[in-house]
Amino acid sequence: MQIERGRFRVNTVEPIRDMDLIFDMMDFLKGQNVRDYVLFMFGIYTGLRISDILKLRVRDVKEKDAVYMREIKTGKEKRFAINDELKPVIVDFIKGRRDFEYLFKSPNFPNKPISRQQAYNILNAAASAVGIKDNIGTHTLRKTFGYHMHQQGVSLATLKEIFNHSSEAVTARYIGINQDIQDMSIKGLSYHKAGRGRK
Question: Which is catalytic among the residues 57, 142, 143, 160?
């Protein structure tokens, strides 16, 4: 059981496995609100926790190839490279903005970031609009990052270090690889092939 935005959910949130749905999310969010689009992009390209993303200011990413920060949850110093596909998105987004401004500003306050609840609502509305049926939460961005990094050949050992997990098994479970293996195993079960061909 997982706590998600103050509510108990029976199922944990999932990564977005389908690339078409990721592009659908991008298109939908870009059409709705550029800030929300960049928030989504930032999450799936960095794998940072939403609490760490929301505390970033313009100066943290302006003209940078990498960002240094102290994680809120762990208190550990973390360095993450800014992906080449994410960089032009950031450059356009911060154009004309002042260094002290929060990247993902709330429209209701002079200079405060949106809340975790707002981020959750944004992602759920977009997921619903594009037809994603899996459970979606703010951890979905982090899990999507990890899942597709692994799909593109990054080892569980490397992802374990990126996520600061205690073991590769934890990482595999976190990004949904274990679930994929279980699903394939169950779907591959056949009594006819294993038996005598009786129907």
Answer: 142
